[in-house]
C-alpha cells in the first residue's frame, strides 16, 4: 500500500481517467432497456401516421350536425364501418352531405368527414334515446347501415387525432446519451424502430472476502457473520444501471481469491471486491492482487491506497487480466463498503455506460441535530442522514461507526463534512449527497 495519502477527488479522478465507455452495439428493443443511446434517433414516419378517431362514434361533416339536439336531432345515413386496423371505407366511398360512417377508436378518418361524434351523443342507430355504447358488429352488423340520430353538434377536428400531432417526420425523437427506459422503448416502437445502437449495460462482478462470512439462511457458529456486502453492492450495481453478478464469499486464501477473480473475468466489465484491503495479517486481497500486473503492459496491476476520508480509508484500484478489466477493491466494513461504492464504483459504472453525468445529485441542507457533529481533521467524512427536500434539512441517522449497517438502511443521503472542518453545529448549512 502506498504511503501517499490520496484525497477523495484524486482517487475518483484516477478511476474515471482509466475507465472508457463500452463499445456500442446494436440491440433489439427489449434488450436495449437500461442502455444509453449512442446515436440520435430521428422520426421517419409521422405519429400518428394518419388522421384517426379518438372515440367510438360516427365520422361526420360539421355542417350536417350544426344545431343538433335531442329534441331536434340531425338524421344521417350510415354508409359503412371503419374499424381500427382497416384501410377505411372503399376507395369510391366518401362521407357526403347527410351521411356518416360508424368509426372505432384508432380507425382512420374517412374521406369527406371533418369530425367524429361520440356514440354517446347519438342514438347508436337504434332510433331510441342516447346510446351508452356501440353494439358489437358481430351482433348487429346492420349498425353500419341505416340511419343515426345525432344529438349534439361538433366543430371541425373534434375527437380526431391529426396525422403527426405527436411527432412529425424529421423531428428528433431521442438524443444520443438518453437512457432507454420503458417510455423510450414505447416511442421507438411507435415510430417503427426495431433496433437501436447503444452502449451495453456494464457487467459487474461483486465478491466478498473473508473466512468469517457465510451465506444468509445458514446457521452461525462461533466467529461467523453473514455476508451482507456482496448482496448490498450487487443491488447497488443494478441500481446504477449495470448487469450484476454476485459471487459467494471467498475464504482468506490468496491463491483461491486470485483464481476466483480470473474465472470471473470472462463475464466482467468491472470487478468489485470488498474486504481484505487494510493492514491486517489476513487481508488477502492485497496479497492476491498486488502482484497481478503484467510487466509488459503499462498501467496494469492494482494499487492499494490510503484515502483522506472516513469511512473508507483503505482502497484499491487498478486493472487485471488480458483485457485490463477495471478492479475496485473496497473495505470490508458494511458502511465503508457502501459509501465507497457510491463515491467510486457507481461513477465508474455510469462512465462505462457513456453517461455524461456520472455523479449522484447533491444539495445544500441545514443540519438538524441535538449536538454538533465532530469529524477528524484532514479527512472528508460521510455520515448517514435523512434529507427533507421540502424543509431543506438533513438529520443524522446513527453514529459514525463503519459497522452500523442498521442506520444505513434508514438513510437516504450522505452528509459531507469537509477535510478542514472538525465540528458542524446544528443549523449549519452543509452539502449532502442524495442516494434516492
Automatic annotation (TrEMBL):
- Known function: Catalyzes the insertion of molybdate into adenylated molybdopterin with the concomitant release of AMP.
Question: What is this enzyme's class at the first EC digit?
Answer: transferase
The entry's protein name is: Molybdopterin molybdenumtransferase
Fetch the InterPro entries from UniProt.
MoaB/Mog-like_dom_sf, MoaB/Mog_dom, MoeA-like, MoeA_C_domain_IV, MoeA_C_domain_IV_sf, MoeA_linker/N, MoeA_linker/N_sf
Enzyme Commission designation? 2.10.1.1
Keyword annotations from UniProtKB, A to Z: Magnesium, Metal-binding, Molybdenum, Molybdenum cofactor biosynthesis, Transferase
Q: Which family does it belong to?
A: Belongs to the MoeA family.
Amino acid at each position: 500500500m502506498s504511503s501517499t495519502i490520496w484525497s477523495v477527488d484524486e482517487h475518483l479522478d484516477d478511476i474515471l481517467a482509466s475507465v472508457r465507455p463500452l463499445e456500442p452495439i446494436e440491440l433489439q428493443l427489449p434488450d436495449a432497456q437500461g442502455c444509453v443511446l449512442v446515436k440520435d434517433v430521428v422520426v421517419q414516419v409521422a405519429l400518428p401516421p394518419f388522421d384517426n378517431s379518438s372515440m367510438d362514434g360516427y365520422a361526420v361533416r360539421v355542417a350536417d350536425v350544426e344545431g343538433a339536439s335531442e329534441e331536434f336531432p340531425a338524421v344521417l345515413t350510415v354508409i359503412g364501418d371503419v374499424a381500427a386496423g382497416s384501410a377505411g371505407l372503399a376507395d369510391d366511398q366518401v362521407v357526403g352531405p347527410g351521411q356518416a360512417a360508424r368509426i372505432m377508436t384508432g380507425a382512420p378518418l374517412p374521406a369527406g368527414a371533418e369530425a367524429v361524434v361520440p356514440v354517446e351523443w347519438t342514438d347508436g342507430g337504434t332510433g331510441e334515446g342516447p346510446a351508452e355504447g356501440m353494439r358489437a358488429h358481430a351482433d348487429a352488423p346492420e349498425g353500419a347501415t341505416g340511419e343515426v340520430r345525432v344529438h349534439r353538434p361538433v366543430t371541425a377536428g373534434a375527437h380526431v387525432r391529426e396525422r403527426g400531432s405527436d411527432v412529425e417526420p424529421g423531428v428528433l425523437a431521442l438524443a444520443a446519451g438518453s437512457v432507454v427506459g420503458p417510455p423510450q422503448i414505447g416511442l421507438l416502437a411507435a415510430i417503427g424502430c426495431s433496433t437501436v445502437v447503444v452502449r451495453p449495460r456494464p457487467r459487474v462482478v461483486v465478491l466478498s472476502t473473508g473466512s468469517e462470512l457465510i451465506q444468509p439462511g445458514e446457521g452461525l457458529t462461533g466467529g461467523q457473520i453473514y455476508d451482507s456486502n456482496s448482496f448490498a453492492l450487487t443491488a447497488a450495481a443494478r441500481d446504477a444501471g449495470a448487469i450484476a453478478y454476485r459471487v459467494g464469499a471467498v475464504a482468506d486464501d490468496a491463491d483461491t481469491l486470485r483464481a476466483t477473480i480470473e474465472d470471473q473475468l470472462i463475464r466482467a466489465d468491472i470487478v468489485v471486491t470488498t474486504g481484505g484491503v487494510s493492514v491486517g495479517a489476513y487481508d488477502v486481497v492485497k496479497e492476491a492482487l498486488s502482484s497481478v500486473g503484467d510487466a509488459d503492459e503499462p498501467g496494469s496491476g492494482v494499487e492499494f491506497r490510503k484515502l483522506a476520508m472516513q469511512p473508507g480509508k483503505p482502497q484499491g484500484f487498478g486493472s487485471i487480466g488480458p483485457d485490463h478489466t477495471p478492479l475496485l477493491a473496497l473495505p470490508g466494513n458494511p458502511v465503508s463498503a457502501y459509501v465507497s461504492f457510491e463515491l467510486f464504483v457507481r461513477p465508474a459504472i455510469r462512465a462505462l455506460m457513456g453517461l455524461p453525468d456520472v455523479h449522484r445529485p447533491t444539495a445544500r441542507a441545514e443540519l438538524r441535530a441535538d449536538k454538533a457533529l465532530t469529524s477528524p481533521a484532514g479527512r472528508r467524512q460521510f455520515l448517514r442522514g435523512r434529507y427533507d427536500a421540502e424543509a431543506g434539512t438533513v438529520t443524522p441517522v446513527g453514529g459514525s461507526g463503519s459497522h452500523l449497517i442498521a442506520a444505513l438502511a434508514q438513510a437516504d443521503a450522505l452528509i459531507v463534512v469537509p477535510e478542514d472542518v472538525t465540528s458542524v453545529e446544528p443549523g449549519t448549512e452543509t452539502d449532502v449527497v442524495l442516494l434516492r
